[in-house]
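Sample pair:
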Amino acid sequence: MMKYFRSLFSSQQVTRFWQGGMAVVGGAAIAAGCTLATSSPAMAQAAYGSYIGLGAAVGVTSGGIGEDSETAANIAFRYKFLKVPVSARAQVLIGSGTAAVPTVSYDIPVNWRTDVYVGLGAAFNASGTTPVGNQTAFVIQPGVDYALPNSDAVLFGNAIIAFNAYRNSGGTAASLQAGVGLRF
């Protein structure tokens, strides 16, 4: 499937896409900074609670020869600190290789059921090539959590952007994760 996607896009198009994506991440970081700099009371405590979940991860970049993009199963964990808009998160990506991605996120409530967040952390590669590369790397993780009404289920989705994540090329890896969690 990834060969099909590669045949659709040139490496220049992918490079331009990621440059644009980095501009979006930079803009999100500036917006988060502006939000932190202004003092106003929080109006909602969205997606209340911690969760553990299962999902899928799809790598959308490749590093070079022998560093193809990968797909993997995703085990996700979120611990929500109750007094501050911060969460400790971790994702374990298990496929042809294994990586653990712990992050600390700043959570922005959108409404009573939805949080958007930006997390910072690292991707620790345990073996092989994963959706987030094949070596330890610094990561930025934007994402969203949505608590389903009248249940303990949470839908989650995020991107992981890992810098200098490929051993041979030193390129940036990016992957998309989605899944369902159970609040506790």
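The radius of gyration is 17 Å.
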